[in-house]
Amino acid sequence: MIKWKYGLLLIVASIFCSESKGQALIALLLGNKVKNDKIHVGIYLGASTSWIANAPGQTPRIGFAIGAYTTYAWKENWEIAIDIVMKSPKGGKKLGYGDSFTVPTDSIFHGEEFNRLQTYLSFAPLIRYKWNPSWGLALGPYFAARIKSKDVYTIHDDKVDQSYTYNSKSDTHLVDVGLSFDMQYVLMKGKGIRINAGFNLGLTNFYKDKAKTAYQRQVLLGVGIPIGQK
Questions:
Q1: Outer membrane protein beta-barrel domain location, by residue (predicted)?
Q2: What gap in Å lies between CA 193 and CA 210, rounded to an integer?
Q3: How many CA atoms lie within 13 A of 49 on its CB side?
Q4: Nearest-angstrom CA–CA distance, 181 and 207
Q5: Coil, helix or strand for 185?
Q6: Which tens digit of pLDDT belongs to each residue from 61-98?
Q7: How many angstroms separate the CA atoms of 90 and 199, rounded?
Q8: Helix axes 19-30, 2-16, angle to 10 degrees
C-alpha cells in the first residue's frame, strides 16, 4: 500500500514540477538531506473540518490530516508550493436519510440520519505571494483520490447502540478536483515552523448518480514542521 503511494507521488512530481522541485519532493519522501537554500520541505499536521455542499441536514466532520510540503523560492516575493496530504478526512455527519445511497438491510435504520466518512489522498500545486518573510497567500488547483468512503448509521438507546455500515465507494467518483486557498505565517522570520489556514473548494460532483449533486468543502488549520535543512 505504502509503496504504490510513494510511486504515485514521484510520478506526480515529475509531471508537475521542474527538475529541482521534483528532486526536493523525492528527497522528502526518501529522507535525503536537502542542500538547496531555495528549497524547503517538511511534514504537515493539521485539523480538518469538512462538509458536503448540497447535502441536507448535516453537521461538519472534524478530523486529523497528515501530509508533507515542498516549497521553492521562485522569484522575489513568490514561491511555488506543493502540498500533499496523505490522509485527508472529508464528508459530513448527520446527513438526512434522503441523501442515502442505499436502503439499510435492517429496517430499524430506515429514515435515520447517518455519517458519510471519507478519506482522500490530495495533491495541491500552489503559487504563493509573500509580502514579507513570514506572511503569504497561496492559490492553486487541488486533485484528490478517494481512498475510503463509507456511510455509518447508528441508533442509540438505553440498552445497546446499534450500527450499520455501508461501503459507498461504488457510489462516489475516485477523483475530486477543485481549488485550494491558503494563508501562511512562518515563525523565525520565515525560517521556522509554518502555520497554515486553508480552504479546499470542490468543483466536481463526487456522486456518480447524476440525479444528485454534492461538492466537497474543507477547512484546514495546521502546522508545517521543516525537516532536512542545513
A1: 38-206
A2: 43
A3: 8
A4: 24
A5: strand
A6: 999 999 999 999 988 899 999 999 999 999 999 999 98
A7: 12
A8: 160
Q: Where along the chain do its domains lie?
A: 38-227
> Among 121, 113, 65, 123, which Cα is nearest to 92's?
113
Report the alpha-carbon distance of residue 162 to residue 128 in Å, rounded: 48
Residue with cell 515563525: 187
Burial letters 87-121, b for 16+ CB under 10 A, else e:
bbbbbbbbbebebbbeebeeeebeeebbbbbbbbb
35: left (phi over 0), alpha (psi -120 to 50) or beta: alpha
Q: How far is CA 66 from the centre of its chain?
A: 9
Cα–Cα distance, 123 to 102 (Å, whole number): 31
Residue from 27, 31, 24 nearest 80 by CA: 24
89 in Cβ contact with 55 (< 8 Å) = no
Distance set, CA 69 to CA 12, 41, 57, 93, 98 (Å): 14, 6, 35, 29, 39
Q: 30: which residues sit within 8 A by CB, 6+ positions away?
A: none
Half-sphere exposure of 189 (CA within 13 A, CB side): 0
pLDDT band at 230 (very low <50, low <70, confident <90, very high): low
DSSP state of 58: -
